[in-house]
Amino acid sequence: MTAGSAPRTDAADQTLVASLSVEFRSALRRYFLRRRLSESDAEDAVQEVFVRLSRRRGLAEMENVAGYLFETAASVAIDHQRRPSQRHAWTHQSYDEAIHAVGDYGPDRVLEGREDLKRVLAGLLELPERTRQVFVLARLERMRHAEIGRRIGISVSAVEKHIIKAHAHLALRLEMGR
Question: Which of 24, 95, 96, 162 would give a disulfide with 134, using CB separation of 3.0 to 4.6 Å?
Answer without folding.
Answer: 162
